[in-house]
Specification:
By secondary structure, this protein is an all-alpha fold. It is 52% helix and 0% strand. This is DUF222 domain-containing protein.
Length: 85
């Protein structure tokens, strides 16, 4: 995995908090983002992806977030979002 030395993903992988597949998804996702986002927000973006990787399998991590549901306010909080529960 070609990531930044001491990165969140590298640390999580080394401590077995995430799998190699998770780390690859994170690396590919960051590599696909526009340069201006990476330049200004790399650490925060990677940290968020690692947080999600801890609770999602690699396929779910790879899948884009869905839009919040268009249902009455009684809908379950967080349904349709990407926030880990």
């Amino acid at each position: 995995m070609a990531s930044h030395r001491g990165s969140n993903a590298s640390q999580a992988l080394a401590s077995a908090e995430i799998s190699f597949d998770h780390a690859q998804v994170i690396e590919r996702t960051l590599a696909a983002l526009p340069a201006h986002l990476i330049a200004d927000h790399h650490e925060a973006l990677e940290r968020d992806l690692v947080q999600h990787a801890r609770v999602l399998d690699p396929d779910a991590l790879r899948t884009p977030c869905s839009s919040p549901p268009r249902t009455p306010r009684r809908a379950r909080a967080g349904s349709g979002s990407c926030a880990p529960s």
